[in-house]
From TrEMBL:
CDD domains: AKR_AKR4A_4B (cd19124). Substrate binds at residue 119. The keyword Oxidoreductase applies. The active site is at residue 56. Keywords: Oxidoreductase. Residues 33-292 form the NADP-dependent oxidoreductase domain. This is NADP-dependent oxidoreductase domain-containing protein.
Length: 322
């Protein structure tokens, strides 16, 4: 079985290990039964880090898979896994954070998560998630209020570490100006078409681990695109090295000194994606990849919010930092 390299992040127990590669558990149409089966397969082939979110509706099947993996003896203890979940934007208010993490823990059937992330720097005034989000529900986040509640979650032992997702340096600097516990992780879009060079430097300087999401451009998912998998430069390198485009993209991310989460619920593709740790890209290949024209994917304006809104425009502009 492949052993996935690890790094460490700050936590309530000092520095703790996190596997650099995780399995994304954002389903694209697959039902709970399929999600549970996929996670069990993933544990069998060597994945130990799983990335879910309240938004995805996959906390429950992920929790059921963990229970089943323990029962089957695939793992000896829950502590062998690294589980991340995220606070959805309809709970980004100080008094809503604790109830939200407690609900996630109930869904997962766990006593703690390893990492709890603020999913987006955004407030949505809607009890039930409705996407696309109606314009009148969109509001600015009060990050101090939310971050203090995130710190409380860690202090209470509900999560080992806390972090953010889709945050640009401006807002992270604001958090750092008052935080008792600084963010351990920032999870953002990252792939050869959106390389995040500057954000990576910024995070490294501040001891924040960058985690790349949609490393394959979410190819085939309803929120995704085919620009990574159909990129000429990546296809040429893949052909000359006898690898797949997915492997070239994942190996490239790995070589940037970050962690990443990639979703596949197909056993063969899960294995293929794991097969990137015993070879490397050449200087020439890295140079070619560094010259790929950059284009951020419009996750917020594209799939979540259909009408223009100042708060959304500001988040998009902040995230265009490169
Ligand atoms: N914080 C945030 O805002 C966000 C976080 N995320 C997280 O990041 C994870 C990964 O990103 P995601 O957006 O899912 O997209 P990915 O870039 O991981 O792509 C996933 C898609 O690629 C397909 N795929 C996987 N491996 C291969 C392969 N080797 N060859 C061909 N196709 C492949 C999958 O299909 P199949 O399953 O059939 O293999 C799936 O459709 C998410 O699952 C989620 O956990 C994602 C978006 C935003
Ligand atoms: O439809 C939802 C949007 O694309 C966006 O909210 C998601 O991509 C989300 O950030 C995720 O984590 O998967």
């Amino acid at each position: 079985m492949v052993s996935i390299p690890e790094t460490t992040i700050s936590s309530s127990d000092g520095r703790r290990p996190i596997p650099l590669m995780g399995l994304g558990v954002a389903a694209s149409g697959e039902n709970g039964v399929a999600v549970k089966a996929a996670v069990i397969e993933a544990i069998k082939v060597g994945y130990r880090h799983f990335d879910t979110a309240t938004l995805y509706g996959t906390e429950k099947p992920l929790g059921e898979a963990i229970e089943e993996a323990l029962r089957l003896g695939l793992i000896k203890s829950r502590a062998e896994l690294f589980i991340t979940t995220k606070l959805w934007c309809n709970s980004t208010e100080g008094h809503l954070v604790l109830p939200a993490i407690n609900q996630s823990l109930r869904n997962l059937g766990l006593e703690y998560v390893d990492l709890y992330l603020v999913h987006w720097p955004l407030k949505l005034n809607q009890a039930e998630v409705k996407i696309p989000v109606p314009k009148e529900c969109i509001a600015a986040i009060n990050i101090k209020d939310v971050w203090e509640a995130m710190e409380k979650c860690q202090e209470l032992g509900l999560t080992k570490s806390i972090g953010v997702s889709n945050f640009a340096p401006r807002l992270i600097e604001e958090i750092l100006s008052f935080a008792k516990i600084p963010p351990a992780v920032n999870q953002v879009e990252m792939n050869p078409l959106w390389q995040q060079k500057k954000l990576n430097e910024f995070c490294k300087k501040n001891d924040i681990l960058l985690t790349g999401y949609s490393p394959l451009g979410a190819f085939g998912a309803k929120w995704g695109h085919n620009r990574v998998m159909e990129c000429d430069v990546l296809q040429d390198i893949a052909k000359s090295r006898g690898k797949t485009v997915a492997q070239i993209s994942l190996r490239w991310i790995y070589e940037q000194g970050v962690s990443f989460v990639v979703k596949s619920f197909n056993t063969e593709r899960m294995k293929q994606n794991l097969d990137i740790f015993d070879w490397s890209l050449t200087e020439e290949e890295l140079t070619k990849i560094s010259q790929i024209p950059q284009r951020k994917h419009a996750y917020l304006t594209g799939t979540m919010v259909s009408e223009p809104h100042d708060v959304i425009a500001q988040i998009d502009a902040d995230l265009a930092f490169q």
